[in-house]
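B., you asked whether I could sanity-check this one before it goes into the benchmark set. Here's the sequence:
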Amino acid sequence: IMADNFTPVDSTLIPTGQIESVINTPFDFTTPTKIGKEINNEAKQIKNGLGYDHNFVLNGELGKMKLAAKVTEDTSGRVLEVFTEEPGIQFYSGNFLDGTLTGKNNIVYKYRNGFCLETQHYPDSPNQPKFPSTLLKPGENYKTSTIYKFSIEK
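And here's what the prediction gave me:
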């Protein structure tokens, strides 16, 4: 994840309004790191999210298209790259999957059997003065783009 910072959450998963560094924490995905490496860490933020359910503050200029995240799967060589104009990306590690959802080929989605990378403005932005504004005034337009690019690297 191309982010040096994230927005910590309270025990109800609402952002605290702070922005903290990911460097040398369980949230440090600035270099290739296995998703599950620190997912059971005893850090307060991992406990608050029951794993990862946090917004990452993307590096780069606000409103400019940029690489937000890259995920690779070594065995198949599958690659997912996420590009966005948004200032944040929510990384969710399937902490609330409980086996009640069934997908393609009748595959049951169990605890942490998947993940999401959702581009966005920071959660709770209207209530957090340090976060980029989400206010849209009458007569203004809002447009944003996100690209999910899939490929194979061998």
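One thing to flag: The first helix runs from residue 44 to 49. Otherwise nothing jumped out at me.
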